[in-house]
């Protein structure tokens, strides 16, 4: 279904993490207008993501997604470490 949504048409996309989080981030970039906002809820998984000893698939997927967004110059992002954490990213390009 998400593949049928129009490119560059949305102001905001909200994601709840899953194992395919990387793909969800890529699709979100496609869907968002320039200046649009991506929100990923529960991105820190109550501290598990910042703990390198946590190697479960969910923690790895979240850790990788945060790194991809942080390293991609098309995004400006911040992580708000409240509760399970929220990532807020602004699409620049």
TrEMBL record:
Pfam families: Methyltransf_3 (PF01596). One of its GO terms (biological process) is methylation. The keyword Metal-binding does not apply. Keywords: Methyltransferase, S-adenosyl-L-methionine, Transferase. GO terms for molecular function: O-methyltransferase activity. The keyword Secreted does not apply. Coiled coil: none annotated. InterPro entries: SAM-dependent_MTases_sf, SAM_O-MeTrfase. This is Unannotated protein.
């Amino acid at each position: 279904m998400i593949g049928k949504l129009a490119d560059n048409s949305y102001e905001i996309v909200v994601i709840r993490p899953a194992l395919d989080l990387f793909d969800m981030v890529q699709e979100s970039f496609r869907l968002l207008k320039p200046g649009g906002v991506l929100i990923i809820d529960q991105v820190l998984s109550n501290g598990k993501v910042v703990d390198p000893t946590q190697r479960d698939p969910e923690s790895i997927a979240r850790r990788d997604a945060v790194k991809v967004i942080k390293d991609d110059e098309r995004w400006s992002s911040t992580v708000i470490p409240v509760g399970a954490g929220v990532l807020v990213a602004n699409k620049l390009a």
